Amino acid sequence: MAAQSRNYTRIVALIYLLLPYTLIKQKLFWRFRKPTTLLPDFICIGAQKSATTWLHQQLSAHPGICMPAVKEIHYFDWFFYRSLSWYGKYFQNCGNKIRGEVTPGYSVIEKGRIEFIRRIMPNVKIILILRDPAERAWSSARFHFAKELQRPLKDITNEEFIAHFNKPWVHQRGDYETILSKWKEVIPAEKFLVILHEELTADPKRVMSIVLKFLGADENSHSILPGRYNVSEEMNMPDEVRNYLKSNYKSMVADLQKNHQIDTSLWKNYKAE
Description:
Elements: H1 2-18, H2 23-32, E1 42-44, H3 52-60, E2 65-66, H4 84-88, E3 98-102, H5 111-120, E4 125-130, H6 133-148, H7 158-165, H8 168-173, H9 176-184, E5 192-196, H10 197-202, H11 204-215, H12 239-260
Parallel strand pairs: 1-3, 1-4, 2-3, 4-5
């Protein structure tokens, strides 16, 4: 009987996992998974290659903030079939500290999952770091080819780089307009903080002060940790690649300024646009 019960549970879990994410699945998730109080107070959702690892390290060093030892839990994208209790275990030793996590992959999850986040964490705060989209894409490509594929960057042709940028999942990570529109439809403006990578690198102390104030953490209990993290291999961007990326993101940058009042003046690739 016990074996039959285990098999039934596996079958139900498999069916649930294979179902497309719909409102029906969301309601089933909420009905059969008991909510836990061990959930984060804030989440940094990216963007990818925009100093999210740096931010994770800085926040981890703050005495009033509790971050998981592992960056990028990926609960709401990769491991959404798991229970809320599984997710909550990452925060079970936080006590009364402000709890948070950093997973850039959350930036591109579907709206239904964002609504679920808002439902189970009505007061959650969201941080999004934006970087010049051409520079972000170039950094991501260097990381992909050099570290993930273990290929020398000098051997990668411009055509290969451009083909990489044309992959849907790559373009999705840099589509800030869609990311912002989707998240801001669900998360109230006062609980959504956008910071710029360029401001962060120019004056990390000032930006960290803004972040800590947004989180309600003591701004005087933290000193900036030196160093860079998760750095992509260096290589100058070829003119052909730069021109392609500028053309690819030109309209999106204009939409950010128009629809979300994002100051993109620090994005050197678009200063003359």
